[in-house]
Specification:
The complex is a heterodimer of chains A (117) and B (113). Chain A has 117 residues and is mainly beta. Chain A has no helices and eleven strands. The chains are: A mainly beta (117), B mainly beta (113).
């Protein structure tokens, strides 16, 4: 089956620093990648949708200047949390899809746990 | 909020018993999907049911969909300890665009040996 990896799996950083999270599709080309955030014992909330070679589309309430997304190739998308603060501490999960059809399955990465001190 | 709701929030059963989880959503949908998430991990896709389907099976999983009530249920039969996880429904809304998933609040299932 399709595999999506994320790196790093865990990161702890100081307040004010920036953190980059990578999302890779290992055995397929991902036309679209999605970034979600999940707080403890809560559901996933979509942050943004990115298509290779174009600007990401952000959900309402998500600051695009704070959460920079780059989808530079069909196998890699990055999320950079700029000037991180403790309230940004969360579990960040990406997913990737091969196509644009509504039945195309999204394959999820294992997640990255960000802790901002 | 567009987010759907699931009930129960938590479910504790013994191995061998059946587990039923319910999901309600708010908008018209193209499809509804169920995912499993083990603690601190990513999501695993379980099953997709289209808006024109009423029931679907996959192994020990049975999913029903009632679009008139905007609800779905996931039944896991003959549960195993390895089924312990959180289960989420996700809708792919006609109004939100293809592939943009809106997740429910989740049901935490605990299956005891």
């Amino acid at each position: 089956g399709a595999v999506v990896s994320q790196h790093p799996s865990r990161v702890i950083c100081k307040s004010g620093t920036s953190v980059k999270i990578e999302c890779r599709s290992l055995d397929f080309q991902a036309t679209t990648m999605f970034w979600y955030r999940q707080f403890p014992k809560q559901s996933l909330m979509l942050m943004a949708t990115s298509n290779e070679g174009s600007k990401a589309t952000y959900e309402q309430g998500v600051e695009k200047d704070k959460f920079l997304i780059n989808h530079a190739s069909l196998t890699l998308s990055t999320l950079t949390v700029t000037s991180a603060h403790p309230e940004d501490s969360s579990f960040y999960i990406c997913s990737a899809s091969e196509g644009l059809a509504d039945t195309d399955t999204q394959y999820f990465g294992p997640g990255t746990r960000l802790t901002v001190l | 909020s567009q987010q759907g709701e699931e009930d129960p929030q938590a479910l504790s059963i013994q191995e061998g018993e059946n587990a039923t989880m319910n999901c309600s959503y708010k908008t018209s949908i193209n499809n509804l999907q169920w995912y499993r998430q083990n603690s601190g991990r990513g999501l695993v896709h379980l099953i997709l049911i289209r808006s024109n389907e009423r029931e679907k099976h996959s192994g020990r999983l049975r999913v029903t969909l009632d679009t008139s009530k905007k609800s779905s249920s996931l039944l896991i039969t003959a549960s195993r300890a390895a089924d312990t996880a959180s289960y989420f429904c996700a809708t792919d809304g006609r109004n939100t665009g293809f592939q943009k998933l809106v997740f429910g609040t989740g049901t935490r299932l605990l299956v005891s040996p």
